Amino acid sequence: MMSRPNGLFAVQYVPDFRAIYELWSSATSYADLHAQLRELGPALCQPFRNSSFKFVVESVNKSHTMQHQIEIIDSFSYLSFEGPVSMNNPEQIYAVLEEWQKGTQILLRVSLGRQVARSSRSAVGLFDLKKRRYIGNTSMDAELSLIAANQALARKGKLVYDPFVGTGSFLFACAYYGAMTMGSDIDGRPLRGRGRLSISSNLEQYNLVSEFLDVFIMDFANLSLRSGFLFDAIICDRNTVSLSNE
Question: Domains of the chain (ranges plus CATH)?
Fold first, then answer.
């Protein structure tokens, strides 16, 4: 259980999280949960009364049929939401969170929460190296690239630079989160590409051309950038840095 006093969350890709919810109520049975929400519900629902929404059921150690999930969701119909139901692009997502004792039919806890952030774990499949048009010997694993981009706080309005860019794995991950990206490498071969394939091929594949500035050949130990040129983040493979220092 996590709390954040000001209600602000910044979650992009965190391997241990699927989503973060604002907890509205929690109990050891549905009867107790509904009793709490009938009392607290009006005040909790008021700020989101007219927002489009959908409900989901998330269970640990148990699975439900779709029909049973619908029955669970319908049991919350007394909550005073007046906005339209939207399954594809809702403004608010409410989750019924169940925890069952493993191997039994014993419900340990059931909660209702409003989703405030969701990890973009699906991006791992999107950036899978097996599906990428252009890769090289130093192309970084998709999951590690996304973790690094998250640690660098890559997002819209930020400028991120990779001084050992190779085939651009870190740039793609940072651009995915909206950052403007650029990179350099002492070896020009991965920058020039192979045949018709290059870093540009991958940018087109991921539809990230507008978040890419350029790549250029440069020895990071002898900077060619003008003095005072500032980046919001410099991101690179620590193993590459170690090798360059030897």
Answer: 9-118 (3.30.2130.30), 121-234 (3.40.50.150)
